[in-house]
Amino acid sequence: MNSTFFGINIGLRGLQAQQKGLEVSSHNIANANSPGYTRQRAVMQASTPFPVPALNRPVGPGQLGTGVEVAMIDRIRDAFLDGQIRSETASLGRWEELSKALEQAEIVFMEPGETGLATLLDQFWNSWQELSKYPESAPVRTTVVETANALAEALRHTHTQLTQIQDDIDTSMGILVDQVNTLADQIAKLNKQIVAVKLAGDQPNDLLDQRDRLLDELSGVVNIQVKEQEDGSVTVTLANAPEGTIPLLEGTQHNILAAAEDENGEAALVILENNQLLVQDRPIGEVGSGLLPQTDYKIAYIPGSPEIRLYEKGSFVGASVGYGPGMVPVGNSGEGKTIEINVASPLPAEGIEFTFTLLDGVSLGGKLQGLFLARDTLVQGYINDLNKLANALAGKVNTIHQGGEITDEDKKGLDLYGNQGELFFVKDGTSDPPTSAGEIAVNPALISDVNMIAAASGTPYDPPVPPPPGDGTNALAIAQLRQQSVDFGESSQTIDDFYRNLVARLGVSANEANRMVENQGVLVDQLTNRKESLSGVSLDEEMANLVQFQRAYEAAARVITTMDSLLDTLINRMAV
Amino acid sequence: MRVTQSMISRTVVNNINRNLERLSRAQEQMSSGKVVSRPSDDPIALARIMILKSTLSQDEQYTKNMEDAIGWLDTSESALNSATAALQRARELTIYGANGSLSETDRQALAKEVDELIDELVAIANTSYGGQYIFGGQETLAKIVGVESKPPFERTSSGASEVVKYYGDNNGLKWEISPGVTIAPNATGTAVFKVDDTSKESQLFATLLKLKTALEDGNPSDLQAVLTELDAHLDNILNWRASLGARSNRLNMGKNRAAEANIKQTGLLSRLEDVDLAKASMDYAIASYVYQASLNTGAKVLQPSLVDYLR
Question: What angle do CA A508, A510, A511 make, to 5 degrees?
Fold first, then answer.
């Protein structure tokens, strides 16, 4: 037999459930523009009916509904879509960074233009042609030296600027590595809160949204794999890290990503196992002498900053201490190799041992991968090619300038005094041949005395006998280098062609990167739209829901009024 | 598909951005006048543009070399023209001098004229063009660093007799006029004025000096030999004039060919590199129209929603 007041209770439940629905809708409307917000829904279900099967169940037809209850407040979200968006965002980030770096490189080369290296090379060859015609003319000789000087300067400048791009990339890498560590730290903290809420049996929707937003952000920097654990926490691993690599973050613990420059000057990325010492806020300061065998070491890790300096146990590796934010010198690193991190006092005399895993930056995905590729593959490739170009140019010109026409061994390059020609191009500040584009320069002796340009060819005598002043055969031999194929290692081509190919390759890479940024951008947009279509707040829908809940609320209130009037009849009118 | 308000506004913003970017690219092309202003704009066209530019600059240099060589050759030719005239006059004087009825005074007068002719020919042999002696071989300058030397030909005395010494050499100059092709823009004094390799004395001048002596000394019998030698020298110089003229012709043709190639290549370069203004302005107009349309759409994004109708 039901209680007399049973109906009121059903009405009450209705009121409460509809009110909750209204509140969830209000929450959705309020967050319509919050980034990363996922719309929520109060999942209503009929509460446990009466009576439950038992021996003492009342006689009568059963079961009778007991009203409604809100089972849970759910988020409408598709985890699969999240994974897709993250992997595409990583790809977008990669191409974006590549495109940025290549755009800078394009500005460095300034081709096709009137001021690029191509024009200077043209002018260089042409000046030797002129000299072959007028070897006795001092102004023509000066022109040769000046155009060569301009060419050498441009080579040096281009080299410096390309190196500058790498330095900029180092800075960006430091910032990104820092960002990864900060995000991992925040996610780890959220993990902790989420686990606590879940333990209490609630649904931490807004915390989950926050965590997803952070994961999205993280996925742009580096390609990640997110695995949700049963307790509600997520484990984040780097998607392309080698087998057995420690995860970036697991539960409430996050490990540390550190960028480094290895002994080949290439960027390296390591992941360090987090240590108790590192999470504690250690004071920043100089390492006191006497505490360590190496007395001049500075702080190895500064909490909240990306600066971690690594030292191989016993000896300091790499000369680039404090190389850049996040860039730390790493030794001949390898998986599981022990390195030493020195932290501020009190320091154990032995240092603290860490294991770290060297990651392959080129397969990491995300912005970090873009930076790695740009720094060590593309920009470094251009620098190498520029060096090859400078060395080939200097080598060939020097050979002829000193040796005269190669066909005749007795003949040497002769200057106007009858002396054998010196090196035309030298390593800046020395009298050796140049070894890279960064230090190529015209021999200063030739700049101060243009008569020392060996335009003639002949036999040098002691004491020197001046060659005929109109002899420009050696100058012509140098001018004709323009058409000569030079061995560049993997290929043999003219110096001009080699340079043109270099610029064309840069163009192709930059073109591809720009196109990919556009394509990936569209793809990410579409996926985001799909996610938004599922998870976004539609104001129309929420308004409709509001009306729906309002009406249901009114009806539930009417139920109570009706019950009230029934009871009024029962209690007040039935009086004897 | 379920559509939300923020989806619409994001799409609109993205599209406006994309259209603005397109507009800015069209604008850049219009204002710079270049289709390819950085390598990534069109890597394939870039490679061709760079080759064309380099070829043009190289051909310009070759044209300059050819023009300079034509100058040299023409100067040499006109110098040899004067030399021919002087030698013709010497020949006339020889025939005249062979006439036995000449008085002593007349012969001395003839000898005097021959003497003047020799000086004139030395001056011709020392002709310079742009400061360079054209008949000196590679010895193109009288003065080089620190060393004072002499012009290619000098009339001087050697013991009792007079000679004309040659201080030049027998090296032709070597100028490049197209890849791998060189030309000598000069005729050396050795070849033109028949300089003896060992004594460095000009045989042409030796003949004239012999003529002068024969006239002074009144030895008409020597004059027959002089006449034969003069004819040989005249032939030699005429041959050289023909050879220089042929070279000059060849260079003129080469220059014309280069000029034609230059026009074609410049045209090709322009087609590759320069903006087709009609097309660019069309592109710009379209981009601008599309941009405005997207802005217009953007203005209507704040559409009425159900909120407006629920009272």
Answer: 60
HEC states along chain B?
A: CCCCHHHHHHHHHHHHHHHHHHHHHHHHHHHHCECCCCHHHCHHHHHHHHHHHHHHHHHHHHHHHHHHHHHHHHHHHHHHHHHHHHHHHHHHHHHHHCCCCCCHHHHHHHHHHHHHHHHHHHHHHCCEECCEECCCCCCCCCEECCEECCCCEEEEEECCEEEEEECCCCCCCCEEEECCEEECCCCCHHHHCCECCCCCEEHHHHHHHHHHHHHHHCCHHHHHHHHHHHHHHHHHHHHHHHHHHHHHHHHHHHHHHHHHHHHHHHHHHHHHHECCHHHHHHHHHHHHHHHHHHHHHHHCCCCCCHHHCCC
Select from A509, A519, A529, A550 the residue whose CB has the most chain B CBs within 10 Å, as the one to mutate to test that interface: A529
**pTM attached to this predicted model:** 0.81
Which tens digits make up the pLDDT trace of A19-44? 999 999 999 999 988 888 999 999 99
Helix axes A380-403, A138-199, angle to 10 degrees: 160
**Residues within 8 A of B (CB atoms), A 483-542 only:** 483, 496, 500-501, 503-504, 506-508, 510-511, 513-514, 525, 528-529, 532-534, 536-541
Mean pLDDT per 10-residue interval, chain A, length 576 residues: 81 94 94 90 91 78 87 90 92 94 92 88 94 90 94 94 89 83 90 93 91 93 91 89 79 77 65 47 28 31 38 32 33 34 38 55 82 90 94 91 69 85 90 91 92 88 84 90 88 92 93 94 92 90 92 94 90 79
Give the pLDDT score at A335.
32
Q: What are the residues facing A253 on neighbouring strands?
A: A250
